[in-house]
Amino acid sequence: MAFRDLMPGPDEARGVAIGFILSFFLHPIALIAVALIGTAIEPASGGLIALPFLAFIGVTQWLYVLPIFWLLRRRGRRALAKGVLIGGALVFLASSLCYGGLAFLSMQDVASVRRIQQNERDHPRGDAVRSSLDGTKTTPQILRGVGRPAPRIRLLQELAHPRRQRRSEQPGFDQ
Fold first, then answer.
1. Sign of CA dihedral 102, 108, 109, 114
2. Of 60, 68, 140, nearest in space to 92 by CA
3. Residue 88 · residue 104 · CB < 8 Å
4. How large is the C-alpha radius of gyration of the chain?
5. Helix H segments across the chain?
6. Predicted structure pTM score
7. What is the pLDDT of residue 104?
8. DSSP per-residue string spanning 20-68
9. Model pLDDT for residues 99-110, shown as the tens digit of each residue
10. Distance CA 45, CA 37 (A)
């Protein structure tokens, strides 16, 4: 079957639309079947096998879409077969776009982390770095609060546990 044979004829539009809808109804049926098979194999947690099946639906759907396509085409229901194949192709495309987008976002995050790490290596700052370099305090001591806390740590401590204001510092106090 060539690619040009997939184009629906004028009298096939309804059959292709029904086949397209049929391909989307096959997904929940296949998901339930996989969960039941998994439960039959391992009663306690066998239904969880449906999760990877669902996560990779773009690829795993071809296990049931292609045989149904072949069966419909063989029985002479070419319009339905085309619709099922088109529906499967669209699910594969949507799944690929989703995972491609996630991969792109992941690559952006990795690039950002590397840029930040390089910037921190090029421009060391902060008391933890300075203290560990001059040997007065090690980083674990700073994190535990040994000795005089670093200014940022003091600020965080003051934000977490605000001290009581003196009476003269309170708003509305006039002498």
1. positive
2. 60
3. no
4. 32
5. 13-41, 50-55, 57-60, 62-74, 78-122, 127-134, 139-144, 151-160
6. 0.55
7. 80
8. HHHHHHHHHHHHHHHHHHHHHH-TTTGGGGHHHHHHTHHHHTHHHHHHH
9. 888 888 788 777
10. 11
CA atoms of 78 and 122, how far apart (whole Å): 65
Q: List C-alpha distances in Å: 74 to 65, 67, 78, 96.
A: 14, 10, 8, 29
In 3D, which of 69, 79, 67, 64 has the Cα closest to residue 17? 79
For 35-46, how does the pLDDT look when each residue is reduced to its tens digit (9 = 90+)?
888 888 888 887
Other C-beta atoms within 10 Å of 93: how many? 11
- Token pair, residue 171, equals 């708003």
Burial class (CB in 10 A: 0-12, 13-18, 19+), 11: exposed
Q: Which two tokens stand for residue 58?
A: 């773009």
The amino acid that residue 109 corresponds to is D
> Token match 């008391």: residue?
127
Residue 131: per-residue pLDDT:
47
